[in-house]
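LAB NOTEBOOK - FOLDING QUEUE
OPERATOR: T.R.
BATCH SIZE: 2
PURPOSE: Compare the predicted structure-token outputs for two unrelated chains run back to back under identical settings.
PRIORITY: normal
REVIEWER: second-year student, initials M.K.

ITEM 1
FIELD SEQUENCE / FIELD STRUCTURE:
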Amino acid sequence: MRSNLEEIMGKTSRLLRIKDTSYVVEVSLFHKWHGPSTNDSATVGCGLTLRGVLWDEELGPKNIAEGRRAWGDDFEELFPKDDGQRGLEGFLRCVEEIHGILGEVGEVQAA
């Protein structure tokens, strides 16, 4: 029997909470096989996503009858106070810290 399947893709992720913040990092590993067989070598990739713990809830669908979203003047609902900094500043600090860590790790080679 011939398969019309052109490729198979898989994703494995782990959520890591950033200490003393309301943010999580999603670290993902991707595999892609061409054709219907996973016995052949896969193309491998990785990804990193930084987001707020409650962003799925805050950014999800909302009934218009409930009124406008109350995100605050400086978007405190999306970027809450962390370590004495408000709003976007705390989030950007997390981005800088993660960028620094990744810079120290350097290039990762496939096994």
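ITEM 2
FIELD SEQUENCE / FIELD STRUCTURE:
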Amino acid sequence: MAHYRRWTIVIFKDDIDGDWSGNARPGTYVRLAKYIQANRESDTGMLIGPDFLPTREEAFAAMKSDIDKAIGPQHAAQDEKND
């Protein structure tokens, strides 16, 4: 579980083939149970990882890229200034 530009990212590994993927949703969640509860209540704004990748680093980079696309360049630039 990680936070990026006011989003929470969860990366997970498929135990069968060892590939990695993730999902993300707007908001800062610090407990996985709350994140899962929020997903059950609404999938609005949730991003699903594009594919399964060979490493967790690639999955994390893919989710950050998807967030950047979702929030748009103007918001991303503003977040850069605030970080």
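REVIEWER COMMENT (ITEM 2): The first helix runs from residue 32 to 41.
FOLLOW-UP: none requested
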